[in-house]
Design goal:
There is one protein chain. The chain is an alpha/beta fold and 263 residues long. It contains seven helices and nine strands. It has one domain: 3-Layer(aba) Sandwich (Rossmann fold).
Amino acid sequence: MTIKPIQLWYAVVLAVMLLLQVSATEAGKGEYQVLSDAQTQRDIPIHISYPQDRSVCSSRSPCPVALLSSGYGVAYDNYTFISNTLNAVGYLVVAVQHELPGDPPLAVRGDLYTARRENWQRGANSLEFVRTELQQRMPNYNFAGITLVGHSNGGDISAWYINSGLTSVKQLITLDHRRVPLPRLETVAVLSIRGSDFSADDGVLYTTEELKQFDACIVQVTDAKHNDITDFGPDWLKQTLSKAIAAFLTGRSVRGLSGKSIC
């Protein structure tokens, strides 16, 4: 039997997670877990990182929660600059691995909105499973009104989750997602940060009139490349993104933090 590279990668990831879980928890930096969804028969790797001050989180005053979804082909734990930013403003962050062995590859030809629906729905199902599973285990955190954060296809998954009618999301942050329309809801605050080398499909972003109607902000970052929005991107870009995200989550203006902001 031939072992495919993705199968070998997955086995290595699971082994490393088991080795790191104890040491990472002891260091206070977070922990790796694998959640098993019996209904879909999927073992979903996650990484949990905690607010800088966990002592303020309680069942009576739960701390906010963000679910973080990576871009296609990017490991779920390669966005620590975002997790650290969220932790610094009091958020529990759960980074979710969406791509698993045996999943069909993401379509790259034809009508992508139609061809990728299965991927987005599978991702949305995983987010909802993770949310409900951890809600039962972690009463000191608010899984009833979460923030979704997603880069590229992870942003598409996050927007799809909201557009599918699930009502547990209070805020959405997308990082250069391109396919799924942002939610047109007055109950969800939206920040969409755009790179400079690709454009979103028609109807994905808000019109000028919609920006007046919804609690939303579009940030265009000059010279930001789509594939640089990870831990491996340039420091100036990570700092710009972190400042915009922190400002949005703490109710401050994102204007002046990048090349162009429309709110």
